[in-house]
Specification:
The chain is built from 13 helices and 16 strands. With 373 residues, the protein is an alpha+beta fold. The longest helix has 15 residues.
């Protein structure tokens, strides 16, 4: 019975071979592979005994310690949802686990092994000597599109538009993520909405960049495509002008368009406000532990729970509303001049939500996606 809370029901009115055919990964969870219980039950199935007395069956179930699990809904068990991310990475695998738990289907997609066939409108994932057409899935969740942000990241998102055009629901939509991958695009959207931000100058002109350093006293030069403070450089106005010019040229050799922000004196932490489907879930703080200028976990920071003011929540809500992401984190800092928004995350973070707030965001995200498909 589909309504039964017992994963496996056997009675003498059903022959064993037919019962075996009814057991699928979506309906039932075996004991741990390789243990004695597993092999005993397989031996039972292999025997050519057509009927068991009901009391024997229940006694066997009791003795073998079958796990009682909640059955999947018929709808969710039919859904095929892939997770785009970095195979082996904790956040990717955690999300894939959550999806598999609800659907019985697991597919982690590495975008470096995806090819687009425009002649047939196929988006194929090459894995284990076979091709999986992602256009045949019910949905895709983008947890990570590449290990590091770069212009190629945008190209990978472009590929996914083919699947989206063929009815595959993608979370979050590729065109929305594109506006957040590029730091400049995100900043322009925030500024247009008149949200509080650090003082920022964007230029290709070296002399203008020198003037920005003098104006800010201490300036942070940020790559347009980066996360967790990677590639960022601090240049202070106290240095000799020739050294300032040399450091700027060195930065521009890799980043033609220079994104320059006034260095903000943080109170030892900044905040991540978590949103799912536009709804606020909670806030964690990234606390500086190493004395570095930033609070990222890569630089030794740690996550802590934080209760923000209604004003901070309101600012974060306005920021995330601009992009309509399915799951995101808004980075905000408290300064002596008020709260400021650093960025809206393209993917959001599960670890901060778990360690700082105690929220299992991957499971909530999987629930959210299934309710949307």
């Amino acid at each position: 019975s589909e309504q039964s809370r017992m994963p496996l029901i056997l009675s003498r009115s059903f022959p064993f071979p037919e019962c075996l055919c009814c057991i699928s990964r979506a309906d039932f969870s075996w004991p741990v592979k390789g243990n004695l219980r597993h092999w005993i039950i397989l031996i039972f199935f292999s025997m050519k005994i057509k009927y068991f007395h009901r009391s024997w069956v229940y006694a066997s179930i009791k003795m073998l310690s079958f796990r009682k699990i909640e059955p999947l809904s018929v709808g969710s068990a039919m859904k095929k949802i892939g997770v785009i991310g970095i195979p082996g990475k904790c956040s990717t695998e955690t999300l894939a686990d959550a999806v598999e738990q609800q659907t019985g289907f697991r597919l982690v997609v590495d975008m470096s092994r995806v090819s687009l066939d425009l002649s047939n409108n196929e988006l194929n994932y090459l894995i284990a000597d076979k091709k999986i057409n992602l256009c045949n899935l019910d949905g895709l969740i983008i947890k990570k599109i590449s290990a590091e942000y770069n212009p190629n990241t945008l190209d990978r998102l472009e590929l996914l538009l083919i699947a989206q055009a063929q009815g595959v629901k993608i979370f979050s939509a590729p065109e929305k993520i594109m506006r957040l991958i590029d730091r400049l695009s995100c900043s322009v959207m925030l500024r247009k909405a008149d949200l509080p931000m650090p003082d920022t100058i964007v230029t290709e002109d070296i002399n203008e960049a020198i003037e920005a350093v003098k104006k800010f006293s201490s300036a942070v030069f940020k790559p347009l495509f980066s996360t967790k403070a990677r590639g960022m450089v601090i240049i202070d106005s106290s240095k000799p002008i020739e050294q300032i010019k040399s450091e700027i040229k060195q930065f521009q050799a890799e980043h033609q368009m220079m994104y320059i922000q006034k260095k903000v004196n943080l109170p030892g932490q900044d905040l991540g406000l978590v949103f799912l489907g536009g709804q606020y879930l909670g806030t964690y703080a990234r606390v500086n532990q190493s004395g570095t200028w930033n609070t990222t976990i890569n630089s030794g920071g740690r996550y802590e729970k934080f209760t923000p003011s209604e004003e901070i929540i309101s600012i974060a809500q306005r920021a995330q509303d601009l992009f309509s992401m399915d799951f995101t984190t808004v980075d905000i800092a408290e300064t002596d001049k008020g709260s400021i928004v650093f960025e809206v995350s393209a993917f959001g973070g599960f670890q901060g939500a778990l360690d700082g707030i105690g929220i299992k965001a991957a499971e909530l995200y999987a629930d959210y996606v299934l309710n949307k498909i």
